[in-house]
Amino acid sequence: MYLSDWVRKWFKVVLVCLLIIFGCGAGLLWDNYRSEREADSRYVINQVRLQVSEMMLYLEQYNQKLYDDPMLKDTLQAMSQDHQVSLIYVQLDGRVMFNSSPNNTLQQIDLKASLHYDLYHARVEKNTYSIAFPVVDEVTQVQVGNAIFAMPASTVFVEESHTIPLLLFIMITSLLLILCMLMFLLRNKVKRDIIQPIHHLKEYSEAILKGNYEQKSTYKIMDEIGEVYATFDQMRMEIMYLSLRRDEQEKAQKELISNISHEIKTPLTTLKAYIEAIREGVCPDMPAVMEYVEVMHNNTDTMTRLIEDLLQHALKELGQISVTLTEQYSRDMLFRILQPIGHYVRTTGVTFIEPQDIPNVLIQVDANRLEQVISNLITNALKHTSAGDSIRVNIELTLGQLKITIADTGKGIIPQDMPFVFDRYFKGKLNSNPKNEGSGLGLSICKHIIEAHHGSISFKSVQGQGTVFHCLIPLG
Q1: Could you list the residue ranges forming a coiled coil in this record (predicted)?
Q2: Which domains does the chain have, with CATH numbers?
Q3: Dist. CA 407–CA 387, nearest whole Å
Q4: Helix, coil or strand: residue 234
Q5: Tens digit of pLDDT for each residue in 295-319?
Q6: How far is CA 121 from the centre of its chain?
Q7: Cα-flanking dihedrals φ and ψ of residue 181, to 5°?
Q8: 395: closest CA among 370, 431, 421, 368?
């Protein structure tokens, strides 16, 4: 609303300014016309003097005889007709001595009302001008009367062409009209291409706030506004993806709790059943008892692993997985970690290929946490391999880092699962064996521990060929 109001007010201000410019231009043009008219009037007075100069000389020479000599009057009458003017000659007392108009019988006039020594627009006849000149006797050089000339406006004013000022006025008016049209076009364009798209974008934002992520924001033209729309739609898709991932994680968390509850209940039930069997004397001899004890021990390990996963995840969520880095040599530490794990892998029928040579370098590491990572990765590999497959461990130096590689020849990871391998609660879709199903927390915890060592973890996998995990730990 603010932008729309601003455009409307700005448009009104500009329109007022244009009207003021138009008014000032028209006023200046009219003032210029009047000034030219006044200048023309002064110029015309001089022209009139020249036009009637012959008659003025005649009056100055024969003013004393004019009243008694009809021939002088006839001559003066002819001169007035030749010059297309009307002449009234009056003495200083207002008595009319000569009148060229045959229908005028004035004998006396009021000098104050009738004498005008400048152009005067006559009230009696339209477009007729009168002007008076003093008559000075040629001999005595004394004013003896006044000559009042009346003439048509067409003979007084020489109309000048006003084409150029008129063209200028038309051009200014046209430019102002064009500017007004451009202003209207600009207003409509701003409203159509800026205000309305922003309003629509606001509606899309409100839809997202309400949880409607399916409403796609589209804009036909890929200009600046179109780029904003494209970026906004990418944001919408990202929010939709994050929302779906959050829902999936919440669902996975609920499934995790349900699965772990079930998985803990199963070994507990088994433990209880075997304990009851021993108490009731079902076992006939000591080897049978030891067999029962072995089963109970395995179920206890299962429960311990599940509880440890939950504990580690809870500590990770709270940021409390303690990683205490100490400087130590890599060869002895890694040998102590790999020896028991290799023995366990071989008991499952899977070939375990140990590293031929372990680099002996100083590294900053938490041995217990690193053992947890390696054990988790190998245990995870066992879940996706079967008898006859192999798990290979390789350790080497590369670019100032210790690189630990764990590769298997198992089922691999399907492409759809690869982006989510390190997400918490995630369990691959190929892991369909309930016996080997885990909590979905192991790889997430591994990533957290390796990053706490200022290192990185990555993987490559081909479905049906196996998976390779790489852990990089910087040297001390």
Answers
A1: none
A2: 2-156 (3.30.450.20), 213-320 (1.10.287.130), 326-474 (3.30.565.10)
A3: 16
A4: helix
A5: 788 778 777 877 776 766 666 554 5
A6: 68
A7: -65, -40
A8: 370
